[in-house]
Amino acid sequence: MKAVAWHGKRDVRVDTVPDPVLEHPTDAIVEITSTGICGSDLHLYEVLGPFLDAGDILGHEPMGIVREVGAEVTHIKPGDRVVIPFNVSCGYCFMCDTGLQSQCETTQVREMGTGAAFLGYTKLYGQVPGGQAEFLRVPQAQYGPIKVPEGPPDDRFVYLSDVLPTAWQAVEYADVPQGGSLLVVGLGPIGEMSCRIAQQRGVEHVIAVDLVPERLERACGHGVQALDLTEHDDLTAVVQELTDGRGADSVIDAVGMEAHGAPGAKLAHQLVGLLPDAVGRKMMETAGVDRLSALTFSIDAVRRGGTISIIGVYGGTADPLPMLTLFDKQIQLRMGQANVKRWIDDIMPLLTADGDPLGVEGFATHRLPLDAAPQAYETFQKKEDDAFKILLVP
Ligand SMILES: NC(=O)c1ccc[n+]([C@@H]2O[C@H](COP(=O)([O-])OP(=O)(O)OC[C@H]3O[C@@H](n4cnc5c(N)ncnc54)[C@H](O)[C@@H]3O)[C@@H](O)[C@H]2O)c1
Ligand SMILES: [Zn+2]
Ligand SMILES: [Zn+2]
User: Fold this and answer.
1) Do residues 103 and 73 touch, judged by C-beta distance below 8 A?
2) Which one, 109, 275, 354, 385, has the greatest CB density within 10 A?
C-alpha cells in the first residue's frame, strides 16, 4: 500500500510498504477514505525528529471502511463506516472508565513516562503506524472505532478523530460562566472549532487572537471578535477593554509550543532539529526550548479567578512560569490531550442535525490525493495558499 512516511526534518514521502495485517484479536483493518493533516503533525515535521525513525507512518485523523476484524471486535464489522480516534484506548481500564481515555492504562507508554498510545505519533506515544495511508491496522479496535451513518460526505464525520473532541474538551475545560466571555488564543482548526462549539453551547462573547489574516477573517465571519496580534502593542489591554476592564472569564490556549513571538526560543527550537537524536531528545525533554508566549499572554489576559484551558501542546521542563501571577490572580489551569471517546455522544447530535450547525462540511480548505502529501505538508507548514485544514484522500 501507499503511506505517508517521515524521513527527516521537513522530509515526508509517500512510500510503498507492506499492507497491514491483523496482529491481535482486538485489531481491525480499515481502508482509509479521508485522513487529516493536523497542526500536531507539524511538530513531527519540525522539531520532534529525535523521537521518530525514518519510515514511520504519520497521521492520526483517519476514517474509512472496515475490511477485517479480529475475533474480539464485535461492535463493528466489515463494510461499516468508521472514524478512528487518535487515542489508542481500551475502554475497560480505570482511566477509560473515568473518561480519561488519553491516559488509558492498557496502552500507556510506560518506558517514556507518557499517557495512552497515539496513532502515528513518535516513540513518545508508542510509535504506532499512523493513518495517512491506504490501510490502517487499528489496535484496541474492540473499543476505539466510532461507527458513523452512511449518506453525508466524509467531511461531516472525519473531525471526530481529533479536531471536534479536542475543541469540545477545550471548551468544557474552559468552564465559561453563564453570560461570560471566552478568549481563544490561536485560530487554527482547533481554536476556530473551539469558537464554533462555544457559540453553539451558548457563549455569546467570544474574542480570539491570531496573526494570519485569512484565519482572522474566517472567525469574524461567524461572529467572533477577532484581534490581529501584529496590530496591537498591548493586546492584554485590548482584551481588558472588551471585558469590563477585568480580562476574559475563560481563555483557551490553542497555540501551544510553536507560538510566534519569542525569537530566542525559536533558535533553540530549530537547534534541536539539527542535533544528534540522543542529545536533541534530552534537550527537548529538559532544556527549555519551549515557546511560552501564547501561554504567558493567556495568563495576562484572563481575569482574576478565571480559568485557562490549555489545549495546544507543550513539552519540556525548563521554562519558568510566572508562578507569582498564577497564584496571585488565583487562576485555574486545566489541560491535556483530548479524551476522544468521552465527548462523542455530546458532539454527534451536532453532526447529524440538519443544516450542519458546526459548519464541518465547509471546514477543510484542501482535499488532495495521498501522493500530494509532501507538497501538502510544506504548504501547510508555510501557511501558504490559505491552507487551513488539509484532508488527504487515499
Ligand atoms: N490537546 C490535544 O489533544 C490536541 C489535539 C490536537 C491538536 N492539539 C494542539 O493544538 C494546537 C493547535 O492546533 P491546530 O491544528 O489548530 O494548529 P495550527 O498550527 O494550525 O494553529 C495555531 C494557530 O496559532 C496561531 N498563533 C501562533 N502564535 C500565536 C500567538 N503568539 N498568539 C496567537 N496566535 C498565535 C497561528 O497563526 C495558527 O493560526 C497545536 O499545538 C496542536 O498540537 C492538541
Ligand atoms: Zn490532530
Ligand atoms: Zn483504557
Assistant:
1) no
2) 109
